[in-house]
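Here is a typical protein record:
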Amino acid sequence: MEIQALEEFDEILEPLGARSAQFFLAASLYHAKKVSFHRAAELAGLSFEEFKARLKEHFSTGYILSDETVISDIDTADKLLSDL
C-alpha cells in the first residue's frame, strides 16, 4: 500500500526526506500502542536502529516504556537476584 499524503502536508514532509509520511504514520501507531516497536520499524521501512534514531530525532525518545513494563522488569530482576 502506498501512502498518498494530502497536498497540505507536502510542504512540511518534503524537507524531512523520503518516506517521511510512512515514518510518522508508523511512529504514531507505535506511540498509540497499536503496533510493537519492531512492527513500526518494518512499516516505516527502517532498521531497528534507524527507527530508534528517527524517533529520538523527532520525539526526543527512542522507546516508550509503560509503568507496568518497568515494574515487571524490576520484579524479574529482583527474582533473578534472589535466586543467586
Notes: The chain has one domain: 7-82. The helical segments are 7-13, 20-31, 37-44, 48-59, 67-82. The chain has a mean pLDDT of 82. Residues 24 and 81 are 40 Å apart (CA to CA).
